[in-house]
Design goal:
The chain is an alpha+beta fold. It has seven helices and 14 strands.
Length: 333
Amino acid sequence: MPESADKSVSVNLENVPYQKLSDYRFFIGAMKNQVPNTQVIPYAPASSLFTDYAKKKRFLWIPWGQKASYVSDDQILDLPVGSALIKTFYYDHVEPANVTKIIETRVMIRKATGWIFANYIWNEEQTEAYLSLNGTNVPLSWKQNGQDMSTTYRIPSETECLTCHKLNNAPVPIGIKPQNMNWNYPYSNGAMNQLEKLIALNKLNDNVPSNIVSTVDYRDESQSIDMRFRSYVDINCAHCHSEERHCSYRPVRLAFNENALAVNMGLCVEPEELINSSQAYIIKPSDKNRSMMYYRMNSTLPSERMPLLGRTLVHREGLQLLEDWINWKTTCE
């Protein structure tokens, strides 16, 4: 190993998950500042999963001398054994002191036998985070764009993690797909396409095609309403509503490589179960009030809401996007 190689990050596959987040040495300096260590690479998908308005910082670590490989546009990068994905959830303007507060950091590690989960809950002092796979609730109040907000934030259990992160009942990552990574990220030394950056850092084999069919940032109003909504449901819904996933028995298929078909989006498709008789279709063109998807996204009841996990609040912006898409669709095609 060259002298310049990162020797400080520690992902010992015989000992992980560690009891403390600091034991991995993913970050340098005060850990709450989330300054990545050498070879720990920040990244972000084009669109982000909604989690009760939590903000997120994501990082990737690949062992020295190893590389990920491209599989296809819509499948996660094939990360080598020993790799780790790190995602920190935090809020700004948390009351009563109007401070930034980190709630949890989730780590996924690839062992020879497959991926494992390691969830870390931050202490009040924001100096350390401790392993917990049991799940817990955190009461939280904050200001969102000047508006008072509150919820009981859910840190998931290992079982809850698996619900969203399973493929054929085995744990897998979700967001680190070429279709989600094919955009310029604002790195500290300048913006660059994330896939090109990984190749330049010798962390990704240079076999990535130049014509990746990519998602977009659903907040980008310069994009079409169709591309925005398809990207939104891909990152928020497809991890369950795809083959061999938790909700594969449902009639919709919401992954980006499938949801261009109106029937896969649920347009003019009758739901397999009714919450009330007014929702005649999963999505009815130009009629949100008869659309089951709109009703579920507008509900906070655990027995009705969609997604099932990861939110207690209605995502107002996502709901508006769905309404706009419904109004844009005037026929079943």
